[in-house]
């Protein structure tokens, strides 16, 4: 099994609202099968550039959740903050190596 990290890029025009949405979404996702953790990361160079990174046990677990019926509702609070400056505001990456 290969762990998967999902990166979602957001624009924090209202940092307090984005942080509140992150915490609400995280509470909704608690106990999701395969979800190991998630983090809210803010750029030290541009505080409006924010990243939510989640780590999953494997791609199958992430895909099952993403294609499930609860995905869109669970993450709706963060959707208004998506970074539309990017052609794709998310990325799904498999972990190939770690130290």
Written account of the structure:
- The chain has 99 residues and is an alpha+beta fold.
- It has one domain: Alpha-Beta Plaits, CATH 3.30.70.
- It is 28% helix and 29% strand.
- It has three helices and four strands, in the order βαββααβ.
- The protein has helices spanning 15-29, 59-66, 71-75; strands at 4-11, 35-42, 49-56, 90-94.
- The chain has a four-stranded antiparallel sheet with strand order 2-3-1-4.
- It is globular, with a radius of gyration of 13 Å.
- The two termini are 17 Å apart.
- The relative contact order is 0.32.
Short note summarizing the structure:
The protein has helices at 15-29, 59-66, 71-75; strands spanning 4-11, 35-42, 49-56, 90-94.
Give a short account of the largest sheet: 4 strands, antiparallel
Cross-sheet strand order for the largest sheet: 2-3-1-4
Mean model confidence by pLDDT: 94
- Class derived from helix and strand content: alpha+beta
- In CATH, the topology is named Alpha-Beta Plaits
Q: What is the name of the CATH class? A: Alpha Beta
Give the total of domains.
1
End-to-end C-alpha gap = 17 Å
For this entry, what is the oligomeric state of its chains? Answer: single chain
The count of strands amounts to: 4
Basic shape: globular
What is the helix content? 25-40%
Key words describing this protein structure:
28% helix; Alpha-Beta Plaits; 99 residues; globular; alpha+beta; four-stranded antiparallel beta sheet
Topology record:
Elements: E1 4-11, H1 15-29, E2 35-42, E3 49-56, H2 59-66, H3 71-75, E4 90-94
Antiparallel strand pairs: 1-3, 1-4, 2-3
């Amino acid at each position: 099994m290969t762990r998967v990290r999902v990166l979602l890029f957001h624009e924090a025009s209202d940092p307090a609202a984005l942080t509140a949405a992150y915490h609400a979404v995280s509470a909704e996702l608690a106990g999701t099968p395969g979800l190991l953790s998630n983090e809210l990361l803010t750029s030290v160079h541009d505080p409006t550039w924010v990243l939510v990174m989640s780590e999953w046990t494997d791609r199958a677990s992430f895909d099952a959740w993403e294609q499930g019926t609860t995905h869109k509702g669970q993450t709706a609070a963060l959707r208004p903050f998506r970074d539309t400056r990017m052609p794709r505001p998310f990325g799904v990456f498999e972990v190939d190596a770690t130290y």
